[in-house]
Specification:
This protein has one domain. The chain is about 70% helix and about 0% strand. The protein is built from three helices and no strands. α1 crosses α2 and α2 packs across α3.
Length: about 90
């Protein structure tokens, strides 16, 4: 389980960037972006085989899906921030 969380943490910022590139390149409805992020995350998790050879394929897919969901939450959290930083 620890290796899944580590891999998801490493993939999440990459998924955020790829989803932003997809938004810029294609017309995607906002309500479909979490689904796109999960699919991109799972694809990146699957393609991370050279860097995570000791992790099973299903675990890498889980890590990618979690990274996709985390990236959507991370982007929405930063996007909805209002006001100035409190001291």
């Amino acid at each position: 389980m620890e290796s899944i969380l580590i891999l998801a943490t490493l993939i999440a910022p990459i998924v955020t960037g790829v989803v932003q590139a997809v938004k810029a390149g294609f017309t995607v409805k906002k309500n479909l972006l979490p689904f796109v992020a999960v699919i991109v995350g799972m694809a990146l998790g699957f393609l991370a085989y050279p860097f995570s050879g000791d992790i099973e394929v299903t675990s890498r897919l889980w890590a990618g899906g979690m990274a996709g969901l985390a990236s959507v939450g991370l982007f929405e959290l930063g996007n909805q921030r209002q006001g100035e930083t409190k001291e």
